[in-house]
Write a structure and sequence with these properties.
By secondary structure, this protein is α/β, with parallel strands linked by helices. Helices cover 42% and strands 17% of the residues. It has one domain.
């Protein structure tokens, strides 16, 4: 399994996958539920809340108006605070670990964190003229989030896709 599973919550994903696949499920993602169901779509909110990043256009993507971002002031840097991947992973892992302790997930099953490449987000939501300036900051924040995930979830319990 990779990424999104169309269920209502991470707990529902864990219980459904474990209950359906049993020992065949070697790792289980949290299903990217809630506002994360559309792959990287929730990153629009992250971009919109980032200082010195502003919406500069919008394009039609299969009937959806996709916002395109750039720099508010090209002389100032971009600093991403949080991309939410680490926060979501830590919260979902708590659900996963509780279900494991309760015996609803087998002891050898790992918690799977699914992450996009920084390129996917930058290519989708950043205007070409601004990508070179914004991409390194986004990538740096993504690497920091991966480090936070690794530091927060036991190695024997974690798989990153």
């Amino acid at each position: 399994m990779v990424g999104s599973i169309p269920l209502g919550s991470s707990r529902e994903v864990f219980e459904t996958v474990s209950g359906t696949l049993g020992p065949l499920a070697r790792r289980i993602p949290d299903g990217e539920t809630g506002d994360r169901t559309n792959w990287i779509g929730f990153q629009v909110g992250v971009l919109a809340a980032t200082p010195n990043v502003v919406q500069v256009a919008s394009i039609d993507m299969h009937g959806f108006q996709c916002p395109i971002f750039g720099l508010k002031d090209s002389k100032k840097p971009v600093t991403f605070r949080k991309l939410r991947y680490a926060d979501e992973a830590k919260a979902s892992y708590e659900e996963f670990a509780a279900l494991k302790r309760a015996g609803k997930i087998a002891a050898d099953v790992r918690f799977q964190v699914c992450l996009p490449t920084p390129f996917a987000v930058v290519k989708t939501f950043i205007a070409p003229v601004f990508r070179e300036r914004i991409a390194p900051a986004y990538e740096g924040c993504m690497l920091a989030e991966v480090s936070e995930i690794i530091a927060s979830i036991p190695e024997a319990e974690l798989v990153i896709q």
